[in-house]
Amino acid sequence: MSEPTNWVEQRAHRERILRSEGPKVWGELRSALEDACNSYNEHYCPNKHEVECKLENGNRSIITKTTYADGHTRYRDERIEVIASFHQATAAVTVTRTPGTPHSFHISSDEQQAFLMEGKERVTPDEASRKILESVFFPSNQPRSPVSMPSSGPSGERGWM
């Protein structure tokens, strides 16, 4: 196809890119969310995972963080749920946290590619993942420290650092 020569052709070209690459951008965000969940479990709760990330269908991911009762400061498990939904018709991702209010990221495109936007700011899938999950993983009133990870000893056996 030749280069778009006027604004109508340019717009049509951008919209074609948005339609074809929007689902790919959603897939990149979904992967970034899943990677963040897996990393959190690995570094902060390797023995009893607190975060679960489920792809409910191709357009919706559900992330659940459970803070388990410890019998000292917390007497029952507490759950927070984050639902990220891709809406192809409107090229948007809506994120709902319970409790909380919905937040949206829009998918836009230029003449080259599609990408995520938060308001007027372009964001990478990893940045969007941080904006979605950071307050869930690290509430301001609860400091967390990574758990020491096993290391290999001189003979290759696994031990604690």
| Total E-strand runs | 9
Write the CATH architecture name: 2-Layer Sandwich
Q: Kindly report the spatial arrangement of strands forming the biggest sheet.
A: 1-2-3-4-5-6-7
Helix percent band: 25-40%
Strand content: 25-35%
CATH topology category name: Metal Transport, Frataxin, Chain A
Report, as a whole number of angstroms, the end-to-end distance: 59 Å
String of helices and strands = HEEEEEEEHEE
Global outline: elongated
Q: What do the pLDDT scores average to? A: 87
Give the low-confidence spans: 151-161
Number of DSSP helical runs: 2
Helix vs. strand class: alpha+beta
Alpha-carbon Rg, integer: 20 Å
Would you write up a description of this structure?
The strands form 2 sheets. The protein has a 7-stranded antiparallel beta sheet with strand order 1-2-3-4-5-6-7, with helices on one face. The chain has a two-stranded antiparallel sheet with strand order 8-9. By secondary structure, it is of the alpha+beta class. It has one domain: Metal Transport, Frataxin, Chain A (2-Layer Sandwich), CATH 3.30.920. 32% of the residues lie in helices and 33% in strands. It is built from 2 helices and 9 strands, in the order αβββββββαββ.
